[in-house]
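Whiteboard transcription, Tuesday session. T.W. wrote the structure tokens on the left side:
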């Protein structure tokens, strides 16, 4: 194992569970079902976990919140490309979450720092808020935190990007995401739901629409993620002709 991998895989199972907001029992259960990769074995044969485990836990919890059964989640996770990094998984989870109503955990400053695994300056809190990872509440001691986005947000705290740039990027992403969502919603309504409703009349159409949408979501999310990654590579290649295009996040796969 490289020194870089050792430093990344630094969490015990208790620390992993605390950072992810789940129980140790849940972590071990997911591991036995093959939903989490095995830990790296460190000194004294203690299992050590890293950012990829955090990202997978966040994705699993998000899929579960959509009402997917454990068997469906297993099939979904098994279909993901093997080479997905923790950054890819975090983006994937964010896209999945976009189909759901906003959910957040209310935590104290102490609980927030425990989940982040570090002390936070006010500037750090500002950056996390700008990335929609958390929201301040009327009580300055409480925060509403997106548990799935938190691991990615914490990693981005150390990326040398100004708060102004983060806010500008957020505006671009939200504007285009809303437009894509609007077009996909119209497409689903006109090309999928309308014909289905015509052939399957009945009083429970709303529930059937929700079920049909839930079955389509993973396919659409994967298509969006793939299209975005390919488009980003092309844009970077065009922006840096004759040079190796820079990464937007550090490659920590060793």
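and on the right, the sequence the group agreed on:
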């Amino acid at each position: 194992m490289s020194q870089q991998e050792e430093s990344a895989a630094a969490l015990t199972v208790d620390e992993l569970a605390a950072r992810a907001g789940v129980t140790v029992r849940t972590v071990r259960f997911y591991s036995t079902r093959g939903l989490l990769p095995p830990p790296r074995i460190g000194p004294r044969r203690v299992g050590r976990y890293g950012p990829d485990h955090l990202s997978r836990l966040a994705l699993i919890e998000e899929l579960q919140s959509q009402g997917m059964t454990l068997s469906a989640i297993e099939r979904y996770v098994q279909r993901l490309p093997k080479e997905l990094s923790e950054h890819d998984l975090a983006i994937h989870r964010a896209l999945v979450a976009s189909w759901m109503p906003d959910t957040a955990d209310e935590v104290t400053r102490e609980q927030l720092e425990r989940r982040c695994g570090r002390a936070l300056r006010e500037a750090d809190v500002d950056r996390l808020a700008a990335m929609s990872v958390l929201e301040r509440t009327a009580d300055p001691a409480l925060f509403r935190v997106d548990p799935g986005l938190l691991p990615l947000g914490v990693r981005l705290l150390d990326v040398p990007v100004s708060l102004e740039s983060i806010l500008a990027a957020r505006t671009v992403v939200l504007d285009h995401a809303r437009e894509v969502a609007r077009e996909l919603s119209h497409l689903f309504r006109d090309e999928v739901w309308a014909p289905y409703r015509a052939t399957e009349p009945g009083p429970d159409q709303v529930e059937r629409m929700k079920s049909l949408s839930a079955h389509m979501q993973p396919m659409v999310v994967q298509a969006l993620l793939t299209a975005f990654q390919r488009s980003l590579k092309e844009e970077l290649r065009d922006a840096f002709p004759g040079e190796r295009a820079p990464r937007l996040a550090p490659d920590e796969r060793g």
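Someone added at the bottom: Residues 1-8, 248-254 have pLDDT under 50 and may be disordered.
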